[in-house]
Amino acid sequence: MELTSGQRKYLVVGLGNPGKEYEWTRHNLGFLLIDKLAADERIDVKRRECQSLIGRGEIEGCTVELVKPQTFMNLSGDAIACLLGKREQVDASSRLIVISDDLALPFGKIRIRERGSAGGHNGLKSIIGALGSQEFIRLRIGIQPEHPIADARRFVLDSFSSSARLEVEKILDHSAAALRAILKSGALQAMTEHNSNGVTSDG
User: Fold this and answer.
1) Any domain includes 32
2) Which residues contact 107 (CB under 8 A, 6 or more apart)?
3) Does a structural domain hold residue 202?
C-alpha cells in the first residue's frame, strides 16, 4: 500500500496473550480487535519487531501500525517501550492507542480515555511502568459479568462460549468504529460519540 508522507502516524496496540489456547479468551479482546481491523483493511500483522507482531497500513487517512505484543500480558510494556523508542515521531500521549479488556465495565460497553490509571489491568500496568506515564489513549472493552465471580484471574482467561461469540463480533464492530473515530476526529470527539453506547449482555 502506498502511504502518503506527512500523514499522522499512530501505534495501535491490542493487548492479549499469544497462543491458540488464549485466542477467544476475554483477556484477548485487544488481539481480536487488531485482527478485525487487519482483516477489514487487508493489513498483514506478521512482521516481527520488539517481541511483537506488526502490520503497517492506512486507516481513516492515518498511517497506522497494528501491534500484537507477544510477551504475554504482564510484560506488554517491554514491547511498547521498545517500539516507541524506535519511533521518535510517534508521541505516546497523542499517537499511542492501547486496546484492552476491562473487568470493571459491563460486557459490551466501551470507554475511550486520553489518560488514566491501570485500573487493575496488568497489561496497562506494565505499559505505564515501562513508559513512566499514564498519558496515552486507551480504548477499553467491558467484560464484566452480570453475576459475582469468585476468581477474576480465571474469569478473564476463560474463553467466550460459542453462543457468546456472535455477540462478541458485534462488540468488535462497535469497537472498530470507535477506533476509527479516534483516528479520524481525535479522542475527545470519539468519546462523545461512543462512550455512552455499547452492546449489553453477558458473555
Assistant:
1) yes
2) 142, 143, 144, 145, 146, 171, 199, 200, 201, 202, 203
3) no
Q: Give the pLDDT mean for 172-193.
A: 95
Domain count across the chain: 1
Could you tell me if 100 and 15 are in contact, meaning their C-beta atoms sit under 8 angstroms apart? yes
CATH code, domain carrying 18: 3.40.50.1470
198 Cβ neighbours under 8 A, 6+ residues apart: 106, 108, 109, 110, 142, 171, 174
Cell of 123: 497489561
Q: Is 85 part of any domain?
A: yes
> Is 147 one of the catalytic residues?
no
Reported as type and span, the H/E element at residue 188 is helix 187-194
In tens, the pLDDT along 70-127 reads 999 999 999 999 999 998 778 888 899 999 999 999 999 999 999 999 988 999 999 9
- Active-site annotation holder among 27, 121, 147, 174: 27
